[in-house]
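Dear colleagues,

I hope this message finds you well. In preparation for our joint manuscript, I am sending the Endonuclease III (Aerococcus agrisoli) sequence together with its predicted structure, so that both groups work from identical material. I would be grateful if you could confirm receipt.
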Amino acid sequence: MYPNPKTMLYHESPFQLVIAVLMSAQTTDVGVNKVTPALFAAYPDANAMAEADVADLEDKIKTIGLYRNKAKNMKKTAIMIRDEFGGQVPNTREELEKLPGVGRKTANVVLSEAFGVPTIAVDTHVERVTKRMGIVPPNASVRETEEILMARIPENRWRDAHHQFIYFGREYCTARNPKCRKDPRIDFCECRVLPQYG
Ligand code: SF4
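The corresponding structure tokens are as follows:
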């Protein structure tokens, strides 16, 4: 169904990807993509964003959730990339997770998308879909979900699988009122958690 999945977040560099993923917490990718072109036109790299006025960052991203906190973290992240990593986004998990606002999920996305390191980032869609499908037990933590998926999916498919679960979760296995009943192609789920939807 999704043979060549790609991240939907607009970006033109690893730095812009870090900022876009950081902004995407509890916000749709569509919402992030509405603000990033103007944001990145004004602040295209870490050096530029490190010098930004936080009030201007807030103004440029004010349509997305938690924008005040995100604006602060964006500036702090830009300063750290400029001062501690020579202006380049680091390419190890340990260093990425030092950046303000960057947790394991964001680090996984950046490692995978920007540096080609195989990872499976577990977001709300990946967790919901894989639990409903019965690939992951319902009580697994986010970290356990990641480990189970890495054990069950060949490494060369981790990146694509991450995107494919997200695409499928957005299109069919939605949080409310899944659309699977309306499409005869969706006959592969066991849906052990929500059998009423199967
Ligand atoms: S049967 Fe429907 S609700 Fe269950 S996992 Fe598949 S798409 Fe999701």
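For the figure legend, we might mention the following. Residues 67-84 form the longest helix (18 residues). The two ends are 18 Å apart (CA to CA).

With kind regards,
E.M.
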